[in-house]
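Protocol step 4 of 6: structure prediction from sequence.
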Amino acid sequence: MQVRGVSFFWSNTGWGQEKWYTAETVSTFANEWKAELVRAAIGAEDGGGWIEDKANQTRLETVVDAAIENDIYIIIDWHSHLASDNIQAAKDFFSAAAQKYGSHDNVIFEIWNEPLQIPMATIKDYANQLIPVIRQHSDNLIIVGTPTWSQDVDQVAANRPSGENIAYAIHWYVGSHGWAVANKADAAQNSNVPIFGSEWGFWDNGNHEMSGDDWMNWADSHSLSWASWAISDKNEPPSFFNLDGSLTSNGQFVKQKLVQYAETAPWRNAGPIIIDPLSGAELIDNVEDNDLISLWGGQWASYNDNSANGQSVITADGQLPYNGYIQGTYQLDQAGFAYAPYVGILLDLNASATAVDLSNCTYIQYDYKGSTHSFRSEQDNVSDFGFHETSVASANNWTTKVIQWSQLGQPSWATGIALDKAAVKSFSWQIGGSTGDSGDLSIDNLGCAGITAP
């Protein structure tokens, strides 16, 4: 899912823009600008920041409460360039924030806004200390900053922090950044690194390779969520407002884009999706017989990156059925593999591992618990494993997942091939990450609504 919205300016006391941290501001952007998220940029170590002045905590809670009330996403952002110098303060901040708000699904935690020219290894070490603090209270999305003001997102794959449901920040400014930054984001996605555009704006430094529209088209082509900087009337280019309260040209651009997106956003216009329980005839497999052969005759299997010089391991095929469901336990090891390590579980839809016509299938449904994964629909005419997929967040308890066909898209690097419901031969559940990551994924009650066994 792609969501778009706006970022507050630094919250620091005495900087002049803390005045915007009100419930009314959140309501205005949610209802008039049609923002789907707001980002609370809570200044950390700089003068007037959270470490020095706890009035910032009140500002944070005001806008988080308002975002929850307005039913939009909120990013709790530790707005810092030197967060690794103040690790205990960050732990205190996020421990309190996660304990208070971590049960709300629309709350996102951004643990380091923009590291300076700091090695990714240092950022990884910091993240590995902060992520467990949040995970004590919440399994919500966490955003981790990247080197060079969150531009070098391509460096994540080689030094990826541990944990699940983690994305990595990519920041850009129209007029300052062009294809060099966009290509780094492409490289990250090619290595299965999830990215989030948690800050972008306008600042003309003479780089006109990509216009505002170019950047928006690029973000849309990558289904990239973003927050635009900034809710501010400071006299600098990214501000949305002039001192008299009127919109700057940049504010006009962002508001127009958000309103236009709202007109066509599927989740705003489709109405509620009513999901009926699958009938027995619609089940592809419920694993009640505790074997590898599905009700449709296809076979379950596991796979890994070993053929490409990785050394990741996952439960062997014969041990996948477990107590009436499929369970794969894994450990990732990149070894000599050029990209991020991976493992997966696959089910052919019939005994011959050939295409099955799913034209009448309205949605796919399965129960799962365990790790974050990509659900993939596989067809023969897609090359280089660029299958249509969607990301599914981790779940500690059994959870029913519904996959709408419209949610499935190819990775940005894949050759563009249309999804063909009549040519699907298998479904797969792929898990990626970093060396040392381990866990399990369990799957049960897989079905396709509106279709029976071929």
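Step 5 (inspection) to follow. DSSP finds nine helices and 20 strands in the chain.
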